[in-house]
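stage 2 :: seqdesign
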């Protein structure tokens, strides 16, 4: 199964029905669609506000059509924005979801007079622009990300809450020369944050996208961190963050091999209340 999927309604490259066809070929019981929710500023990869009713009604129709074979969920990946919380929860279509994936793709710009955001999940040049606003101090930028993560984990959303790619900032941060000496500190802080708010979320996602898309050897979060979460009984769920049906089970085989090697077989607790 996979609950993290992007279609042509946002930045994915195929129609929802193509994903369903593929999920049925994989004999899956569940499939969830999670369009990037609208942001309070222009963003080329999120669903248009005007498309929200079409998206939810189309997914619901498809769910009805295929209900004897597979359970389909209409959901969203919603951004947490430090200073604004989850602004997209104002939309009825989003509020009504059975589950939501909560993610951080932006941190506030400390140099701006009003609330402005910097993307940390885009290209490396975009990341460097963000770093520049933090005076090229990586620790300061990571602290801002951790602060936002802490708030995201403890802010209620009113439905099943899956924390999306919890350490995604390392995609770009790890390319800087300063990261190596901050890595242990970063993961210790992140672990404490997760541990302190276990009652306020349902799952932390193991996201395989970097494994099949960037050729990286670790998912988000990295294996060592997954092991620590598992040892502390934090529920985990595996998602591929697919943008095309061919990516629905992207990285899964590789991940399962790695988990088995690390003695972490069958760690996914997805027999969930969905
Ligand atoms: Zn994301
Ligand atoms: Zn995503």
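stage 2 :: out
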């Amino acid at each position: 199964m996979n609950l993290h999927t992007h279609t042509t309604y946002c930045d994915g490259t195929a129609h929802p029905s193509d994903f369903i066809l593929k999920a049925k070929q994989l004999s899956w019981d569940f499939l969830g669609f999670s369009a990037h929710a609208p942001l309070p500023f222009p963003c080329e990869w999120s669903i248009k506000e005007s498309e929200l009713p079409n998206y939810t009604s189309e997914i619901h129709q498809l769910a009805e059509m295929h209900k004897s074979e597979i359970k389909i969920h209409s959901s969203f990946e919603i951004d947490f924005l430090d200073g604004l919380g989850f602004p997209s929860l104002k939309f009825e279509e989003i509020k009504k979801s059975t589950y939501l994936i909560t993610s951080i793709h932006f941190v506030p710009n400390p140099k701006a007079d009003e609330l402005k955001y910097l993307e940390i999940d885009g290209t490396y040049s975009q990341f460097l622009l963000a770093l520049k606003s933090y005076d090229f101090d990586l620790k300061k930028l990571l602290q801002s990300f951790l602060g936002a993560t802490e708030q995201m984990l403890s802010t209620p959303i009113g439905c099943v809450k899956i924390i999306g790619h919890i350490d995604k900032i390392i995609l770009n941060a790890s390319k800087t020369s300063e990261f190596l000496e901050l890595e242990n500190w970063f993961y210790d802080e992140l672990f404490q944050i997760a541990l302190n708010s276990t009652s306020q979320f349902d799952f932390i996602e193991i996201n395989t996208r970097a494994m099949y898309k960037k050729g990286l050897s670790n998912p988000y979060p990295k294996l060592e961190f997954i092991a620590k979460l598992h040892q502390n009984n934090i529920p985990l769920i595996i998602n591929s963050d697919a943008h095309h049906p061919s990516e629905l089970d992207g990285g899964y085989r590789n991940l399962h091999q790695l988990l088995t090697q690390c003695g972490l077989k069958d760690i996914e607790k997805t027999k969930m209340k969905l």
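stage 3 :: structure notes
- The longest strand covers residues 71-79.
- The longest helix spans residues 179-196.
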